[in-house]
Amino acid sequence: MTFATARRYAFLALAALFLGAANPATARSDLTLAMVLEPPHLDPTAGAAGAIDEIVYANIFEGLTRIGANGEAQPALAKNWDISPDRKTYTFHLHQGVKFHDGAAFDANDVKFSLDRARAPDSTNAQKGLFEAIDQVEVIDPATVKVTLKHPSGDFLYSLGWGDAVIVGRTSAATNKEKPIGTGPFKFQNWAKGSQVALARSSDYWGAKPALDKATFRFIPDPAAASAALLAGDIQAFPSFPAPESVPQFQADPRFKVEIGTTEGETILSENNARPPFDNPKVREAIAHAIDRKAVIDGAMFGFGTQIGSFFPPHHPAYVDLTGERKYDPELAKKLLAEAGYLDGFKTTLKLPPPVYARRGGEIIAAQLRSVGIEAQIILVEWAQWLEQVFKSRDYDLTIISHTEPNDLNIFARDDYYFNYRNPAFKTLIAEISATPDGEKRNALYGEAQKTLSAGAPVAFLMQFPKIGIWDAKLEGLWKNYPIPANDLTAVKWAE
Amino acid sequence: MLSPSILSHLLTRLATSLLTLVFASLVVFSTLEILPGDPARLMLGLGASEDAIAALRGQMGLNQPIILRYLTWAGHMLTGDFGRSYTYAVPVRDLIAERLAVSLPLALMALTLSMAIAIPVGLFAAARRGRAPDSAIMGVTQLGVAIPNFWFALLLVYVFAVTLRLVPAGGFPGWSAGIFPAFKSLLLPAIALALPQAAILARVTRSALIETLSQDYIRTARAKGLTQTAILRRHALPNAMIPVLTILGLQFSFLLAGTVIIENVFYLPGLGRLIFQAITQRDLIVVEGVIMVLVAAVLLVNLIVDLAYAFVDPRLDIPR
Lengths: 496, 320
Description:
Shape of chain A: globular
Order of helices and strands of chain B: HHHHHHHHHHHHH
Number of strands of chain B: 0
Helix content of chain A: 25-40%
Largest sheet of chain A: 7 strands, mixed
CATH architecture of the largest domain in chain A: Roll
CATH superfamily of the largest domain in chain B: MetI-like
CATH class of the largest domain in chain B: Mainly Alpha
Helix content of chain B: over 70%
Radius of gyration of chain B: 24 Å
Mean pLDDT of chain A: 91
Strand content of chain B: under 5%
CATH topology of the largest domain in chain A: Dipeptide-binding Protein, domain 3
Distance between the termini of chain B: 20 Å
Structural class of chain B: mainly alpha
Oligomer: heterodimer
CATH topology of the largest domain in chain B: MetI-like fold
Shape of chain B: globular
Number of helices of chain B: 13
Number of domains of chain A: 3
Largest interface: A-B, 48 and 53 residues
CATH architecture of the largest domain in chain B: Orthogonal Bundle
Number of strands of chain A: 19
């Protein structure tokens, strides 16, 4: 290199330095975040996969109401509503000037179309139960919809906030799986299958404009790859990080922020209440006392997760801490087994689906059961097999599973559910809860329901599944908790 | 250029390949039918009502009798229509094409890399048979065969992506993002895939060379006064190519579909992950389509390898 060229390069380098320094003020407005699972498609009204909602909820699609960061129902496309004194008629007043991303105008007809479509006989909505209370949906005028219920429902406004209840366009509903068209602040750009989904800010959004103008969701199934992608800066956020074992590394790194939140995932050891010996309440109580929840959480989840004593999320205002009711007490467990006529214990099976919490937790629980005399043979199953054998055919003794649906205490009141649990008193309680509006009285009923379950011990309650969120320390506005499946980007921004 | 005997051989091979394809389609279809698990139930999850599941089964065409479904599927496949994915609701053909755009270049890159390393190394080792360099190379290749490729992949990621930040830790931007970024994101996976393959290939090359080196014509060549290098390159290597080609053919088939672990480590949208996902989601029509494409690819590679045998060894001109 001659002196002249060297000088020229030095000049260029300096210039680049100055230009770089002169131009740092514009805040970053793009975000790449990662998820473990790729959704099967992008229509939240036609599938149960949480991964669908984790991309589209609140970003692409909106409902009449929406669930906020703390699990509360808030106005969304309906700016407000009137409830009749008998609480059977809801009149929703809609925002005006709202457009779908394909340019179609949104009005009351879309609301009627969406709700009728979801509850139609040929509907493939994964949560048809949400719409069970609806008797009729009427369009009063383009900005007003009247929904009549068959019976009062305390959960109705909350149910309308689910991803399965979002409002879809009449002309675009059929193609939402591939090309989702909603009313939200972000519109769908493209989906490179197996790789990523890209969203861009919608220029004619009716509400407050989000700070981000581009968001990309990457799919990273491998826990080691998840850590590497964050460390290499390829992604800036992993809202539901899959590798609890790597969390301390990120907690110690000032470039990252780690937020441990809660989810709606009550994780339990399910027992087939119709099958001996689990039809004997004493055996079920014995199992509840044989399990050391802390050891399960430490061993399977590296200490992340909250112990639960019933089937209710600890972050809910109506939560009652019942973990002390069924304490870890192997001696008591042995005594209860002996009283039930199983002095020498018994042999049984434990079917484990693929998630790590089930596989790791299952090994630990099998060991704990063995120490009170119960030999549980572990059988590993895939998801499809689990659904077929355990959930549908109820061909199982024990299984471990996280029930992630919000507000799902009522599954213990369903006769046809895979627990095979029958408790008329509990069913009465659930019916009462469903007919009671939000408030003190409802919370008291919830408390009673939790106690009934703890006492009846239909299953062994293990832990509330954690949400481990890791993101760039300069990123703000992502949800700490997981009240419903969502990665709401509307309030996300980069700090200056 | 093709002699009549090669041509007739080619035709016979094509006919048997077609029969194999038909047979494979029967086996694949019937095996997947007995797999437990209902794709509709899987998609609608724990909260779904029975009538919603029934409605979805109807939409997917799962309520028709199995014979009818096989015939429809096989018939459509003849016209190039692989059906529509249950989960993604897009044509299976497009899904496979998208994934081949990653898997094929990756497999070719890995194969080229593996050859570029293995053949010179094999030559080098064979020429110094039994001496220190040979033992050292054999030790290293032993290690290369023993190290699991996903572990090696993670090591590469931590060095080149996390620490040096030269390449992305994973993902694939798509060829539309430009040749160079796409190439860059396939580089580490190709290396991770190539090294264990190169280790195997180098060992095969070396032993094949050593075997040819004991042949009479090599002695003759030596007696003629040819240098060691000339003997190796001109006389031994071409004759040692048959086992090398066999291994290469096997490796290519493996690299095309058997790379699901590496695809996971680098979260690449390749064929391996497509088939893995499709199996867990019971997206049977995708599984069937991918398997058929792979069967066809393996048959094609075998055919090419067969022709290549004839090319490197003219004595094999008339096949038995």
